[in-house]
Amino acid sequence: MIASLSYKDQSPAVKARFDKLKQRPPLLEISSLFKIFDSKAGEIVALKDINLTVHRREFMCVLGQSGCGKSTLIRILAGLETPSSGQVLVDGQPVTGPGRDRGMVFQSYTLFPWLTVKANVMYGPRMAGKDDFTNESEARQWLALVGLDKFENSYPHQLSGGMKQRAAIARALANEPRILLMDEPFGALDPQTRQQMQAYLLQIWKNVDITVFFITHDLDEAVFLSDRILVLDPRPGRVREIVEVPVPRPRSHDQLREPEFLATKAHLETIIHPEDTHAAPVFDKLPIGRMTDVGDDVE
Ligand SMILES: Nc1ncnc2c1ncn2[C@@H]1O[C@H](COP(=O)(O)OP(=O)(O)O)[C@@H](O)[C@H]1O
Ligand SMILES: [Mg+2]
Hints:
Layout: H1 12-23, E1 26-39, E2 42-55, E3 59-63, H2 70-78, E4 85-90, E5 93-94, E6 102-106, H3 117-127, H4 132-145, H5 161-174, E7 179-183, H6 191-207, E8 211-215, H7 219-225, E9 228-233, E10 238-244, H8 259-271
Parallel strand pairs: 3-8, 3-9, 6-7, 7-8
Antiparallel strand pairs: 1-2, 1-4, 4-5, 9-10
Helix pairs in contact: 3-4, 3-5, 4-5, 7-8
The structure holds adenosine-5'-diphosphate and magnesium ion.
């Protein structure tokens, strides 16, 4: 019989794990953060009073339906967008613009297509004045870490989607950021590659002194990766809950069917409501010649 477990039944060992995590120094501190956009239709409150602390070496995922402000939040953390009010500190320093202390990986492939994989990884440190000799040997180490050491002279178009994202991670890490900001980085990959990338990312995180802030809308991905999950509510985007993931580490995809995993996922499903779809059927409006007759036996 499979033991049924409620997300609320956290064992003392799990509670102790999270008490310990919260004793680590804060790496990211967000206080009273608001973001309001002006649009033709009026003001859009994209983020309302966000308060959050992410601890050093924590892996935090952000979940929430489309339009709840996930990308706005991560763009503010990256310094690509300014808050309407409130403050963001990374390692105690206020965020005022983009900086090398924060590495970004987006869903869309962002490598420079005219540079080799190695030259992409060397780009940031070179701009920061690192000498070519050190830079090249370090780039090779980053590429080895993401399993691309044999592809240093390839160009991005010669790589698969998963390999491009591994190169993008190596390029972000080469700047030695304190935090990796990832906005649905595996969203465009097929399910199998996506699982491989998740496992890779956990390996990298284990080996590198880095904190990860990772947006996804895949519940399995969030539970598999996270220490804690920030769940946002939409319109206005605000904190719904911060969910502590009790699944033990090291993690493997075999755990997807284990009670802690299922209980956490079930809890997330109760707090994230699927988006209302106001889309009415449009079949009668389609200007298509070969519609089937009602009564055709298709189920
Ligand atoms: N530059 C912008 N100008 C006006 N509205 C915006 C802008 N960027 C985002 N928004 C609005 O803010 C809300 C949150 O968007 P976003 O952060 O992209 O959500 P998510 O990433 O969770 O899907 C949405 O209603 C979106 O339309
Ligand atoms: Mg988004």
